[in-house]
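Researcher: Here's the sequence for the chain we discussed earlier.
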Amino acid sequence: MEKPNIHPVDGHITVSLVPKNENPMLSGIVIAGKNAASVLWETKAPSTDASVGRRPLPTAPIATIGPITPVVTPNPHQKELTIPSSPGAWTDVKYSSGSPVARHEACAVFVDGLVYSIGGRGMKPVSVFNPMSGEWSQRTGPPVEINHMQCIHHENKIYTGGSWYGKFPYEQEHEVMWTYDILSDSWNSVEGLPEGRRRGGGAFVVYEGKFYLSHGAIGGHGTHATATSMLDMYDPKTDIWTPLPDGPTPRDHTAGAVVNGKLCVAGGRNGASSDFWNANIAPVVCYSFKTGTWESKASLPVPRGGSMVGTTCSGLVMIAGGEGKTQTNQAGQAYDRVDFYDESKDVFLEPSYMTSRRHGSGMAITSCECGMIYVPSGSAGLGGGPEVTTTDAWSVDGVVQQCA
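Model: Thanks. This is the structure I predict for it:
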């Protein structure tokens, strides 16, 4: 076969794929060679109705040689970052054995080479995934039901932040913060939020050894509940919570991430509304740890609640999945849409799409040398189900790396 005559233009090679019903002219693309996995892809496929939040994606490239290369030197607090032109790609993770426990309104976190999926409605064990072996296993679950929370890792423990328990729509707030000790496979509790500030469905992050819990709702779902914009800081050394300035917009079913020395909260809704499925909140809000002030930022292109939020190694805030209704879709849905927010420029970039719709899960982010983000389980439909046991994995090039 004669080799094709390929001439890159300005460092780019453009491949146009013509749709066919069968016998495609091109069935796949293989990138081979040194640093093959660092190739960035972009698509010019047209967007569809934003209320649906979906457009076709190209087949994810397969890198046959070479380890993954980070896009930039990881530094989530650095202001000037090289932002990749590609939204990356998602892959459905194949397991060698076991599967995660189906759960939603849960959390996920990556610790020492393992993905931990924790909590959710009902009494659930902890599910642990080893990306190197592809195996899922189960560990001791919490002694109580814990749901509607983000979780963070700090000194061999996983903290679950503000959380709820109980039946929809009258969920109640935990008086303590539950913690999971990774080394001993055991649960304990530390000082909870003060009375009147206990809540679930908020954003929970760690920054320079202190924890920050923002927003969330008191009393569950509906008009009997109260959506808040409260912000509290927890010091694990003193076991003390300190209230900080409120944010500009009450919301719950939200999540947050640290970028550029700020806590940025994205997505969510006013869960105290009579029709909370339609009460999605668009603006991103960011709290500066340096100045102690809040700022309203750009609006999420497709507002929704229950998204999974984290920071990529290139300094973008990722908002994955979610749920909600729109004016054109009153049946409601879970989303597979993934948005990327550049806080330094206050703009949203081209989205990507998970292989499955889901909300109410968590985001487990590996080291930047590995460059993977895992989103396990969650609910594939509006509200409580169906709960799924699949896992989506993101990387810049769409290649699942067996690394930590």
